[in-house]
Amino acid sequence: MSSETMKAIRIHAFGRPEVLRYEDAPKPVPQSGEVLVRVHAIGINPPDWYLRDGYKALPPEWRPQVSFPIILGTDISGTVEAVADDVENFSVGDDVYSMVRFFSVGESKAYAEYVSVPAADLALKPAGIDHIHAAAAPMSLLTAWQFMIELGHDQPNPLQAHKHQPVPLLGRTVLVNGAAGGVGHLAVQLAKRNGAHVIAVASGRHEALLRGLGADDFIDYGKTPPEDVAHDIDLVVDALGGPTSGRFLQTLKRGGALFPVYPLGFAHAAEAEQRGITVSATQVRSSGAQLAKLARMLDDGTIRTAIDSTYPLADARKAHERAGQGHIQGKIVLTVAA
Fold this sequence. Notes:
By secondary structure, the chain is an alpha/beta fold. About 20% of the residues lie in helices and about 25% in strands.
């Protein structure tokens, strides 16, 4: 670290949004293989508040050990400020976006004016969208892509013994639960783009958005439980996941698949096996190569990110409070003044 400082959001203890502090922090210096990015926008994601809260949802033996203070966050869009001598693919002045160092708890450090990024995690920002929409994409879009289209890495899967495998989408029926959220609204678009018939499940106020993104059918879960009306589904992408994912087993045809994005708490393995259904999940990993591929789709509008709300970096606490209210439409983004 240099003696220069920057503004960042740091936590000095786990807790509620009130622990987020806007304060001076050391400005990073790019190390070998890294790029220093001046941040313009930051996408916030569930792992941000899981870490802020101390990963209370995990069993104690699974909770990562971290050293305070911590700068939260992974997703950034910004401009290259400096590059290490051994980095060849990026230059000062390039507009870039990234999911930084995930999965490395406490090492991403994105809620800041500057962040050092491994060049392998970085891609040129889609030219056709602004920094806010670019920052909204990385984790959510990589999650949907790695679950549904291309895993793209050989990292051990901490969530299950077998390697996650996407399934064919062309001509299949795909149901996306939590379809209006960060991962969900992008999963809808990827499924549709790859030739699936898409059923979106969300609250009624999101119907117009989701039909505009390509959903063929819509289920308002506030009026009708989706498991009561959806049948013969080939793939369910449950962007909410957790203990309630098991209810979707009855919607799937034999040979179908259930992909819970948050698989912890799923307790229906025996039922899934009896029904002939594959249940599989993966842990999203940083990939500049995949972001470069996805940038072309974001650039031409094939895939687009929806923005729920934006907040200045200094108001990260308010952004986390908004996240805690739920019913998010797309993504929440922090902005960084020039």
